[in-house]
Amino acid sequence: METANSGPLAGYRVLDLAGPLGLHCTKLLADMGADVVKIEPPCGDECRRIPPFKDDTPHPEQSLYFLHFNTNKRGITLDIEKPDGRAVLLELARTADVLIETARPGGMDELGIGYTALRAQNPRLVYASITPFGQTGPWRDYKANDMAGIALGNLLYLAGEPGEPPLQPPGEIAYGMASTYGAFGIAVALYHRLDSGKGQYIDVSMHECAGHIAGYFIPNYGYTGAKPARASRKGEETDLYDPYPTKNGYARIFIIPVEQWRRLVDWMGRPPSISGPEFEKMSYRRQHPDIVVAAITEFCSRHTKEELYEEGQKRRIAVTPINTVGEFIDSEQVRARETFVEMEHPVIGKYAQFGPVPRLSESAGAITRPAPLIGQHNKEIYCGELGMSNDDLVALRATGVI
Fold it and tell me: What is the model's pTM?
């Protein structure tokens, strides 16, 4: 059942015109209590056509991808390509606190609904544009997906084994980073507005965000000029031997101090192949990875990953089970923290929804409503908040505006 938004951002109105590049941004704000109004074209948002789908049946109301990223939002339809649609958006923006869009640079200005036009009627508006490469520079007009973001931002180059092709990480890392930085920028801008009374424009580049999150590699290159190198997981360059097959999946073992190595060998029953004092030296183990890997592989194959983890904790050895998504959701840690909440969607039915992240002790967010159906809140917002009549809605619908 839908309830009024609560949380630290309750009372803030956000107009959501974002595509995949900004989905996580608007979700973070919605989960923290903002009244996020998802504005879709009359045919539905493009994200409704992204799999997976319930029962593997493509349908705009059955995209689990859309469902995940649009909880806590209200939804309306509006064709901003039409003059009447733009006029309605201008009315919505008069009282909004934030607008988020992912159109190509200059696209919203060409329609007359860019920051300059909206600021003229609402100087308090915080306007965020999230694009692949930002609003300036020679690449500003280039299109790019998540893969291009991690590739051009240096993250993809650093993934994988030395001398082999890069490994693509799962998920949407560049999209997620751009959205997270965007949400941070919006929060800062709203805080600044408390004193100044003025909104501002936020230019988020996915390309920059991917590079910014790349750890110590970029600052190291900036200071030393040294090209970063990947760390091998195959023996001679590091003491990381992962992953190891177990009875029910894989586990990772990470050894650095000699005391950890000794405890591991004792746990394994001191197999002759690796029990000699020479193996206590990391340099020697790196020179003989086949011997070490063979012994640890044989040991791990006799246990489940949970057994290895529990005993490793007791022995103060870093053992990490490599979880599937099901094992993550069903883990005692996730259950104890009540990470997922049960939701019910009118088409999907009951399902488990990820709760708000992060957790605030004094002003926690909450999941209060499932993702909206196409145009679900048209009447509520257009008639109840903008003062339109039912005849107005019929006329807008007849001309394809909503």
Answer: 0.88
